């Protein structure tokens, strides 16, 4: 349903102690969309994802997801509402195997994939199923971090720089995976520094500066926005 956003963020402010990091972020993500947050280092992209998850408790504004008010939910309830967060450092269990990492997170909603389905989507993880997290390459760790969220049945993925530090061929593979997830109806909110990658997979963009959104546009307007992106991002 295009009319109601699946995830809606209104006038979101967030603080680290006394330091005011977000100054009224507004954004919406509709079901099935892939939306990318762009912006230079330190503008608040990661903070926006963390504040949505409830990992930053000093926040004001409105956040609704799937009709639920997230502002007043404790952290574990936010995850259980169906939001899967993959932080930049990926957050897999380093000393557990691929299999164990996949099996451990509880299923929180209907529609989670079985481990077999996940291995169809990520055949390289199947080959590595008995390897410990620490033994995986950066690309394999990123895929495992995404895969373990898919098993839980989350309805939206918040991904923080999934291509960070990965070789071009692996970046391409992550792009194909996100395209496959999108075809299956997954909703994705992505923070990405790799503009070329983001421009291939996103339906819409939000450009952040100084803790707020300064522009938003659909992928079709990208050619018209290149001057702005050049000025703000240097791309
Ligand atoms: P990056 O890609 O570098 O992570 P970003 O756009 O995601 O950039 P944030 O990490 O959200 O930016 O940071 C926003 C602001 O909050 C920055 O000024 C940063 O220095 C500050 N900040 C981030 N984390 C903390 C923290 N744990 N304590 C204090 N200030 C922080």
Task: Summarize the topology.
Layout: E1 7-16, E2 19-29, E3 34-38, H1 45-53, E4 59-65, E5 68-69, H2 75-80, E6 83-86, H3 98-103, H4 115-121, H5 123-127, H6 138-151, E7 156-160, H7 168-183, E8 187-191, H8 195-201, E9 204-209, E10 212-218, H9 222-233
Parallel strand pairs: 3-8, 3-9, 6-7, 7-8
Antiparallel strand pairs: 1-2, 1-4, 4-5, 9-10
Adenosine-5'-triphosphate binds at residues 16, 19, 21, 39, 41-47.
Task: Please characterize this protein's 3D structure.
With 235 residues, the protein is an alpha/beta fold. It has helices at 45-53, 75-80, 98-103, 115-121, 123-127, 138-151, 168-183, 195-201, 222-233, and strands at 7-16, 19-29, 34-38, 59-65, 68-69, 83-86, 156-160, 187-191, 204-209, 212-218. The protein has a 6-stranded mixed beta sheet, with helices on both faces. The protein is globular and about 45 Å long. The mean pLDDT is 92. Adenosine-5'-triphosphate is lined by residues 16, 19, 21, 39, 41-47. Adenosine-5'-triphosphate binds next to β2 and α1.
Query: Total helix count?
Result: 9
The whole-number mean of residue pLDDT values reads 92
**What kind of sheet is the major sheet?**
6 strands, mixed
The SS-based structural class is alpha/beta
Cross-sheet strand order for the largest sheet: 6-7-8-3-9-10
Shape descriptor reads globular
Order of helices and strands: EEEHEEHEHHHHEHEHEEH
What is the β-strand count?
10
**Percentage beta strand:** 25-35%
Q: How far apart are the first and last residues' alpha carbons, in Å?
A: 34 Å
Note poorly predicted spans. Answer: none
Rg, Cα atoms, Å? 17 Å
Instruction: Summarize the amount of helix as a percent range.
Output: 25-40%
Bound molecules: adenosine-5'-triphosphate
């Amino acid at each position: 349903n295009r009319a109601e956003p699946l995830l809606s963020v209104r006038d979101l402010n967030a603080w680290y102690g006394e330091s005011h990091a977000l100054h009224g972020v507004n954004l919406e993500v509709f079901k099935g969309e892939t939306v990318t947050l762009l912006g230079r280092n330190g503008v608040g992209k990661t903070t926006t994802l963390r504040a949505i998850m409830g990992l930053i408790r000093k926040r004001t504004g409105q956040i609704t997801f799937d009709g639920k008010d997230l502002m007043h939910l404790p952290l574990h309830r936010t995850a259980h509402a169906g939001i899967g967060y993959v932080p930049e450092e990926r957050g897999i269990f380093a000393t557990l195997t691929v299999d164990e990492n996949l099996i451990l997170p509880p299923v929180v909603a209907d529609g989670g994939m079985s481990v077999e389905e996940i291995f169809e989507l990520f055949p390289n993880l199947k080959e590595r199923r008995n390897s410990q997290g620490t033994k995986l390459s950066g690309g394999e760790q990123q895929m495992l971090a995404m895969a373990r969220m898919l098993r839980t049945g989350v309805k939206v993925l918040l991904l923080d720089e999934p291509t960070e530090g990965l070789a071009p061929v692996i970046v391409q593979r992550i792009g194909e995976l996100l395209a496959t997830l999108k075809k299956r109806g997954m909703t994705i909110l992505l923070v990405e520094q790799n503009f070329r990658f983001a421009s291939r997979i996103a339906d819409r963009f939000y450009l952040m500066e100084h803790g707020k959104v300064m522009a938003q546009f659909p992928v079709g307007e990208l050619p018209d926005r290149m001057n702005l992106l050049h000025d703000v991002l240097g791309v």
